[in-house]
Amino acid sequence: MSSTSDLDEVIHSIKKVEGEIRTVEASIQAVDAELKKDGLREKDVDYYREKERQLREEKNKLREKENKLRDEKMALQEKEKPTDGRPPSSETNADLISKLESKLDEMLIAVKHSDRATPQYSPAVLGQDEMTQLMQFKDFQVFEGKDDQPSILSIDEARALARMRTEHQVVAFIMPYLQDILLEEGNNLSVYNSEEYKWIETSSEPSAFNEKPDLLISHPAFVNRKIPFQCDDEHLKKLRRLNDQYGVLAAWELRSFIGLTCEAKLSISDAAFGDVINYGSHICFGKHAPPMTRLMLFDKNEFWLVQSVKGAVGTVVCSKWTHGGSRKLLKDFIPKHWMVKVIHQACEKFNLAIDCDSFLGSGAFGYVFRVNRLSDGRQLALKVTGGKEKNICRLEVEYTRMMKAHRMCPGEVMGVEENGFADFERGAALLMSQVGEHFSSLSPQSIMDSLKNLHQNHILHGDIRLENVVCVDGKPCWIDFADTEFDFNPRSQAAEREQLRGLIKEQYEYNAN
Ligand SMILES: Nc1ncnc2c1ncn2[C@@H]1O[C@H](COP(=O)(O)OP(=O)(O)OP(=O)(O)O)[C@@H](O)[C@H]1O
Fold first, then answer.
1. What is d(CA 452, CA 460) in angstroms, rounded to the nearest whole number?
2. CATH number corresponding to 340-508
3. Per-domain residue ranges of the chain
4. Nearest to 309 by CA among 270, 272, 280
5. Please, what sign has the CA dihedral across residues 279, 167, 335, 323?
6. Which residue's C-alpha comes closest to atom 26 of ligand 1?
7. Which of 41, 439, 470, 478 for a ligand 1 pocket mutation test, highest count of atoms within 8 Å of Cβ?
8. pTM of this prediction?
9. Where is the composition biased (Basic and acidic residues) (predicted)?
């Protein structure tokens, strides 16, 4: 390929990006116009604001991409000039183009995953800087120990830990002690080994940053199970127990409910601290991010309890494994999320069991899990909400509307179990009768026909999105009835059908009738 055609390519890419920027600008204007309309519901205002924020973020990313392309264009134009006797650059045009393409790919991924953080510095620099700050502001606390209280490890156990030769061995050694503390706490959390599995999401792929925390402490509902990774180390094989669990966070949107994210080292270093800081800043970044998360860094001698607030380190408390009171110190540090409590109470109330690999999906206010009813062994879907009073009220409204809609049109509407709603101190739960599969298993026309059936039965769904249809026994079944109406203007149905037609066209490139 000649460098002129390389230049043409770059110019073409610039034009394409300019077009994309114009499209995003038009979308921003459209969202602004929606926001100015009267009578918007609070939910709609929140939705449009978030949409506008995302679009502006996307526009900034595209501008960056445009600037990079312009730099490339200048570089190519420079190359075309006579070399006045100097040797030409050793980079071929193909090299340049492939570099450019991979840069573009990276940027596109960054745009697509704009709710992921990209760390700016190497973990060692980050760790060292943060440590200086912590020392200056006295936010690094050394736990003195309380002789009359239990420690995590006895002196003999600590000696055994000191004999570990690899990080894998340190992790395997410490797992049962942590699990024991969690059992004592009785909050259904477990410890999962995630040493060999990536679950921290970053903005660049592949990332130069550690994305595999060694341990995840979590409720099983938020975890997808993994099989134990292969190992040739005979000592490690002996340290492993049959009931050790391996797993990763089931979905990035569940990161608000992580118990602890843990990193193990043979000996704690600046770089190790930097890794932990990076985990915290990723977890606390973007949409669905919690403002705060808790992490643990440990080695053969001690453990650090790190509180990360909005991605920056708040405080660090450091303790020896053998210090009296270390057990309580760690136990008290594990957060008590409303979601864990509500799932636990819902399972007790409805006689349910919930294990790993059960997360089905989430929306603006609910999280849905596959559960097993112990009395009859049936699989059901449990939707859980909480945090705010208005979420609890919304779920109760959904329960009554879903029941009514199901009575009117059982073939198209997800069923709800009798007395299948319960509210608790910090949240509420709704028990649905079936677990559906993703809508992609359905034919697009069947989804359209199913909406028409709802309409013929005098139901206006109120939130038409493909994510609100699941596949049950090969047929469409609608969920999420919080905005459903039974008394409405007939034109609203036509509008819903039109909306669904548009979504089907976008998703399947199919004209539904
Ligand atoms: N019975 C079910 N079977 C299988 N998956 C389900 C079921 N109910 C819900 N889901 C999954 O959970 C996701 C969230 O559920 P739902 O739409 O009810 O939540 P929401 O918070 O009300 O969403 P919205 O943002 O529309 O208000 C769905 O998109 C779907 O993937």
1. 10
2. 1.10.510.10
3. 3-112, 123-336, 340-508
4. 280
5. negative
6. 363
7. 470
8. 0.77
9. 51-84
**What SS3 class is residue 358?**
coil
Q: How far is the CA of 363 from the centre of ligand 1 (A)?
A: 6
Confirm whether residue 328 is marked as ligand binding: no
How far is CA 389 from each of CA 375, 423, 425, 484, rounded to the nearest angstrom?
31, 10, 10, 20
Helix (H) or strand (E) holding 367: strand 367-373
pLDDT tens series, the chain, 513 aa: 445 578 878 887 887 777 777 777 777 777 777 777 777 777 777 777 777 788 888 888 888 888 888 888 888 777 765 444 333 444 556 665 665 566 555 544 444 444 556 555 678 878 888 888 888 777 899 999 998 999 999 999 999 999 999 999 999 999 999 999 999 887 799 999 999 999 998 765 555 677 899 999 999 999 999 999 999 999 999 999 999 999 999 999 999 999 999 999 999 999 999 999 999 989 998 777 899 999 999 999 999 999 999 878 999 999 999 999 999 999 999 999 999 999 999 999 999 999 999 999 999 889 999 999 999 999 999 999 998 899 999 999 999 999 999 999 999 999 999 999 999 999 999 999 999 999 999 999 999 999 999 999 999 999 999 999 999 999 999 999 999 999 888 889 999 999 999 999 999 999 998
Pocket of ligand 1 (CB under 6 A): 360-366, 368, 381, 383, 414, 432, 434-436, 463, 467-468, 470, 479-480, 482
The residue among 244, 269, 426 whose CA lies nearest residue 343 is: 426
Residue closest to 13 by CA, chosen among 56, 55, 65: 65
Radius of gyration of the chain (CA): 27
How far is residue 183 CA from its own chain's centroid?
A: 26
Atom 14 (ligand 1) nearest CA: 362
Q: Say how many Å lie between the CA of residue 361 and the centre of ligand 1.
A: 6
Q: Are strands 312-320 and 140-142 parallel, antiparallel or unpaired?
A: parallel
Protein residue with least CA distance to atom 6, ligand 1: 360
